[in-house]
């Protein structure tokens, strides 16, 4: 049994980024940049007004003299001439500052009588002016390779006039469920059968991580069926098998695919849940064998598959960060497997979040998994702990 960190390191080291493709910005949210995006223009392109009012020479506003309005500058329609001493131009938010003006007198601070504008206050040079290039200049780096496009930054790319952006192709992740006991949701299970849920939950995780889940079906526990199903993963970036990873006579993944081109890197890790995790290659395709227990499959999805997808995307974030919380209940000493306890983390005013593991940690219990928002992490051989002691945890918010 190898440690979790070593297993993940070996998986990530074996993967390469997916090819670059260009997407239009309207479809780019959630994608990861393969190359930096540089501004193709300067923003604002000229000095602009930040308010509705009058473009003035600041020096003309403190002397009690009225100004003469000689024109108008609106957003998209600038004033053509320039402003001389004692002159002003009516201006609106987002309009270019006319030549000669150096400040904006907001209309609340002016009295207008026809073309005669009386400033009620003196303004300093630069008041309410957004200088050219305030936001960015042509050639500035807008976003770096590895960053994910989303609501925070997609508007910046648009403003930089980058209508197409280079992103990594979404990794295609083939999901192969295994087991005679499985039927699809909506089908009528026989007396000893259950509904297959892993391809859906792990598929949803794949999509959230930026990959494209490809459900290649359920293989019954027959060697020929499994070998045949494995071939359907051709063209995918990774084959994820669900179940059949353990040691029983019906756990066939290694045995069957072993004779058909499966090259195992490692099998079995010091982790709970997730002991029978397997990694290798099936022909050209990296193969990740997740345990069949539904919670084990999903937890291993968080710890290994999501990082693998982020690595193939060249994303900045691969490994889920460990956070520090306070334990909400007493725990017994841990054994030699690193433990990932389904928990509820609640933020607290008086310190780190309170992280309370559920009492039932059976790896078949989807009802518990669905309520958890965190995994409390305990190293191998951790001593017994009392409520209130510090505990590391991983948030599951990215699955929400
Ligand atoms: N003698 C031993 N038995 C087991 C060991 C062991 O070390 N020695 N390890 C246990 C651990 S830990 C796990 S985890 C499981 C993993 O076994 P497999 O990966 O071979 O998974 P299966 O046996 O195929 O299934 C386990 C369990 O999960 C259910 N399952 C499978 N696929 C799905 C699906 N798509 N949707 C919903 N549920 C699924 C399946 O019916 C079983 O109940 O092995 C332990 N045994
Ligand atoms: O590792 Mo198993 O995943 O403990 O149930």
Shape: elongated
Number of helices: 7
Ligand types: ligand LQZAQKY5, molybdate ion
Second CATH tier, the architecture of the largest domain:
3-Layer(aba) Sandwich
Distance between the termini: 31 Å
Can you give the mean pLDDT? 96
How many strand elements?
26
Provide the descriptors you would attach to this structure in a database record:
single chain, 400 residues, alpha/beta, Molybdenum Cofactor Biosythetic Enzyme, Chain A, Molybdopterin biosynthesis moea protein, domain 2, Molybdopterin biosynthesis moeA protein, domain 3, 4 domains, six-stranded mixed beta sheet, 7 helices, 26 strands, 17% helix, 31% strand, elongated, binds ligand LQZAQKY5, binds molybdate ion, molybdopterin molybdotransferase activity, transferase, EC 2.10.1.1, MoeA_C_domain_IV_sf, metal ion binding
